[in-house]
């Protein structure tokens, strides 16, 4: 197992995009922010894109709030060699901006006002992941930063981020979409040509399930949106190619827990199968031993001290518990490294409290770099 050199990764001018991925709740947001801060302080012009609904990143960076466009971090006492900007994805706003940019004025108005659009732009499965990739593509095309760090959405599965473009494309190419858009393309009779006389029964059945008004809204949305489908697919393709390029690196973030490391293993295999550049694994919130005393000796000493020095005995028992945790974490990580011996790994010891300021992020960055 090789050690992941974080500073070498973020200092390399060829590294243009760094994607932090992993299952939910493993510390991706804090990791992304700490990496961005460290990169800026080491001279990179960096922007970090987060998808954190708790808005912790803004607070940690000393900002009142983050919006859907990058905001420069300029707070007292922060004078990096490079530059740091941050933003938080607004899924609905990104979708709206995309419609406005790629549809005519009248068509954009029709789409934005459609109730079905309002539903899918905020709650359709995969929309958040798709919009994260859309925003990444926009930031890369803008060319204002030499390093873009992405905190991927808190999905149930880390694979959702990579699957979103294909899933969206499949939805846009699906039979239902073709049926709903057919009237606009064929003077109102296109659907009948596709499904024949059975359409009435089809429409009645679907209307019963989803509601007649929703079906009508969906049909109106698809017809107004019809000419933009190709643009969706093309932008998704370009962003997907960006993720496969030599300037992109993926960092898989995991907690030292079975589910998180299993998810990290799945993601690693997926990246390898699609020839995507994996930089390494960050094992977050570990509990390394602070002394060489074994658990057995610590417990034995605690038993002897119980009567005369209860505080010392309690400390020894806490140490024994920590030894057990550290050994368990070591076993879990070793399973990953045995399955993926070529993947570089770094361990980030848990902080004593939640990170809520630049100093905390700076300390996380130091721990990421092995300091």
From TrEMBL:
Record keywords, A-Z: ATP-binding, Nucleotide-binding
Keyword set includes Transmembrane helix: no
Stored Pfam families: ArsA_ATPase
Domain ArsA/GET3 Anion-transporting ATPase-like stretches: 15-286
InterPro entries recorded: ArsA/GET3_ATPase-like, ATPase_ArsA/GET3, P-loop_NTPase
Superkingdom of source: Bacteria
Molecular-function GO terms, alphabetical: ATP binding; ATP hydrolysis activity
PANTHER family for this protein: ANION TRANSPORTER ATPASE-RELATED, ARSENICAL PUMP-DRIVING ATPASE ARSENITE-TRANSLOCATING ATPASE
Protein name: Arsenite efflux ATP-binding protein ArsA
Annotated source species: Herbihabitans rhizosphaerae
């Amino acid at each position: 197992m090789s050690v992941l050199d974080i500073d070498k990764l973020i200092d390399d001018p060829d590294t243009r995009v760094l994607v932090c991925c992993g299952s939910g709740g493993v510390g991706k947001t804090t990791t992304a922010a700490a990496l961005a801060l460290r990169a800026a302080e080491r001279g990179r012009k960096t922007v970090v894109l987060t998808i954190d609904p708790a808005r912790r990143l803004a607070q940690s960076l000393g900002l009142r709030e983050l919006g859907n466009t990058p905001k420069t971090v300029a707070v007292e006492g922060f004078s990096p060699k490079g530059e740091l900007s941050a933003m938080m994805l607004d899924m609905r706003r990104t979708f709206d901006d995309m419609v406005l940019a790629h549809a005519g004025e009248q068509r954009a108005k029709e789409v934005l006002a459609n109730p079905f659009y309002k539903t899918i732009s905020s709650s359709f499965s995969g929309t958040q992941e798709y919009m994260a990739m859309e925003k990444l593509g926009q930031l890369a095309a803008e060319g204002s930063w030499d390093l873009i760090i992405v905190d991927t959405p808190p999905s149930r599965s880390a694979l959702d981020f990579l699957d979103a473009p294909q899933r969206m494309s499949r939805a846009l190419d699906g039979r239902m979409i073709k049926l709903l858009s057919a009237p606009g393309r064929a003077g109102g009779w296109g659907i009948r040509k596709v499904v024949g006389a059975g359409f009435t029964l089809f429409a009645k059945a679907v209307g019963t399930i989803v509601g007649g008004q929703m079906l009508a809204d969906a049909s109106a949305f698809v017809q107004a949106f019809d000419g933009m489908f190709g643009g969706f697919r093309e932008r998704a393709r370009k962003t997907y190619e960006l993720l496969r390029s030599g300037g992109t690196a993926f960092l898989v973030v995991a907690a030292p827990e079975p589910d998180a490391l299993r998810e990290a293993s799945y993601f690693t295999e997926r990246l390898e199968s699609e020839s995507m550049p994996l930089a390494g694994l960050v094992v977050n919130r570990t509990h390394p031993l602070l002394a060489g005393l074994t658990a057995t000796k610590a417990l034995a000493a605690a038993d002897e001290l119980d009567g005369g020095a209860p505080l010392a005995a309690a400390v020894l028992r806490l140490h024994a518990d920590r030894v057990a945790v550290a050994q368990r974490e070591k076993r879990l990580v070793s399973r990953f490294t045995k399955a993926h011996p070529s993947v570089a790994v770094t361990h980030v010891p848990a902080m004593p409290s939640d990170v809520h300021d630049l100093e905390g992020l700076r300390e996380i960055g130091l721990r990421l770099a092995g300091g």
